[in-house]
Specification:
mainly alpha; 7 helices; about 90% helix
């Protein structure tokens, strides 16, 4: 679907405002050189320790794959949510816009159309008042007859204008009611967005720890000490597991926010 410039701007604005940068934090992945050192260390280690090193590395690799998939899925969902919210807000803005414009135009046109009639009524009333002061019976009767006819027409005109004003007011009130309900649902997402910011900030910190620990692990692996290598890999695995858990939570929160958007969307006709 081709986006309007305003809708595209809203999508961009929402994407920027939503805290997604934390997804840049990545689970640990050994460099080729570190992996070579690990292989050599494992080959030289006793069978039991070799198995533990291999299992720990496999776990680390699985966590990396899982984290990468979560990152990809979350970015896609984040983008979809941003587009859905932008489209929703645009629909809220455009809700019954054509109908309201038409009703307002009809009201304005009616007021303009009957303006000469109201001007004539005012003029006749002034003339009638002047004729009565002059005690001109013939002129007073003639003006009174004209004024009565115009009065009836003016009453009908005012009634028509009032109906049109009421129709516009009702249509606007109906729209405002729906928009208020939609905004109330969207407001429930504020807590989710706050939780997202908190989780993403935490994942950034975890990512920094992983980067530092990854560097430290690479240095330890070069020493070809099996016990130290296993300890280092274990620390790295714990941190990567923590990051995966954080990113799973982030993905879940994005899903929750998407559900809120869907609920709000269903309120719009």
């Amino acid at each position: 679907m081709r986006k309007t410039p305003l809708l595209a701007f809203l999508v961009l604005l929402l994407a920027v405002c939503w805290p997604i940068e934390a997804l840049a934090a990545s689970a640990a992945k050994l460099t080729a050189a570190a992996k070579t050192s690990l292989d050599k260390t494992a080959a030289e280690a006793p069978a039991q320790l070799r198995a533990k090193l291999t299992a720990r590395y496999s776990e680390l690799e699985a966590l990396y794959v899982r984290e990468q998939q979560l990152e990809q899925d979350t970015k896609a969902l984040h983008k979809a949510n941003a587009e859905a919210e932008a489209a929703l807000r645009e629909r809220m803005k455009q809700l019954d816009a054509a109908k309201l414009d038409k009703l307002l135009k009809q009201t304005t046109e009616a007021k303009e159309r009957y303006k000469p009639l109201f001007t004539l009524q005012t003029s006749l009333n002034k003339q009638l008042a002047a004729a009565r002061k002059l005690k001109n019976k013939t002129l007073t009767e003639a003006l009174a007859t004209q004024a009565e006819v115009v009065k009836l027409s003016a009453q009908l005109a005012r009634q028509e204008i009032r109906w049109k004003e009421e129709a516009y007011a009702k249509a606007k009130a109906d729209k405002d009611k729906v928009v208020k309900e939609v905004r109330a649902v969207l407001a429930t997402g504020d807590t989710v967005l706050s939780q997202l910011r908190t989780e993403k900030s935490a994942s950034v910190q975890t990512g920094k720890l992983i980067a530092a620990e990854n560097k430290n692990t690479s240095a330890i692996l070069k020493k070809r000490n099996a016990e130290e290598s296993f300890t280092a890999l274990s620390s790295l695995t714990v941190l990567s597991g923590k990051l995966v858990s954080q990113k799973a939570t982030i993905y879940g929160l994005e899903q929750k926010y998407g559900s809120i958007l869907s609920k709000a969307d269903k309120l719009l006709p």
